[in-house]
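One-letter codes give the sequence; the fold follows as tokens. An example follows:
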Amino acid sequence: MAAIGFIGLGAMGRHMAASLQRAGHRLSVHDLNRDAAREHLAAGARWADNAAAAAEGTEILFTSLPGPDDVEAVAEALQESLRPGTAWFDLTTNSPDLVRKLHAKLAARGVHLLDAPVSGGPRGAQTGKLALWVGGEQAIYERHLPLLQAIGDQPLYVGPIGAGTIAKLVHNATSFALQAVLAEVMTLGVKAGVDPLALFKAVRQGATGRARTFDRLPDFYFAGKFDPPAFALALAHKDMKLALELARKNGVPLRMGEAAFAELDEGMRRGWGGRDCRAAMTLQEERAGVTVRVPAEKLKGALD
């Protein structure tokens, strides 16, 4: 059983710390609010008056904090407490730049920092249905994998330091963009005369409704092959145009919808009407100066 320091017992941290305790590990805990540690202390955890005290004598440190400024402040406080060989898993949704800067600083002292942001919300943290996306030294990740599995059911090594944080930011940017899109389309459907529950049931039965958000990326896009089409860009352009006409008729602004239509419209001007609608996704690749491709053999098993 490991001696673990855990700093940050908020909505997510308190559940993750409790999961480690249930797995039999000894914890030293710290939070700005001592009451947040009540259940952990009752279960045998040691209270630490500050961050440095939480890290003293531990082999592994976990931090679950609001943001980059808090992590940097804790790192400053831990300068004298982290001994060589300590593994620090930062569960915070952080800045990749800060994570890399701290990693370089700590590595010089023999301390291993890994970024390990989580996804699943407080309920997932409580039930263990939690993803952990880890960046850093793979050997350290593998050595402490059982600890991560005590916290969540889907730990994944993503790549070098900062990779876990980038994955989390990509995930959350997707989530918030979809949130805006869903607000648009639901207000459109309801204002155009469909009952919200009936609309919800209907759209869940469609191709997009049935698929997990990212599961359709391998179709055409990762391969960079848009011929023959599964759904032609010309048809997507027509459908989006009709949706925007419906929105205008009903006085429903579709800012996200207009942006999506602009991509399809540019694709049409490029002469891609007969190609798969996802050919329009390559316009963003041109702007970003990067190509997103995954060889077919590497995709095998990725969707299991």
Remarks:
- DSSP finds 15 helices and nine strands in the chain.
- The chain has a mean pLDDT of 96.
- The domain at 3-167 is CATH 3.40.50.720 (Rossmann fold).
- Residues 157 and 290 are 23 Å apart (CA to CA).
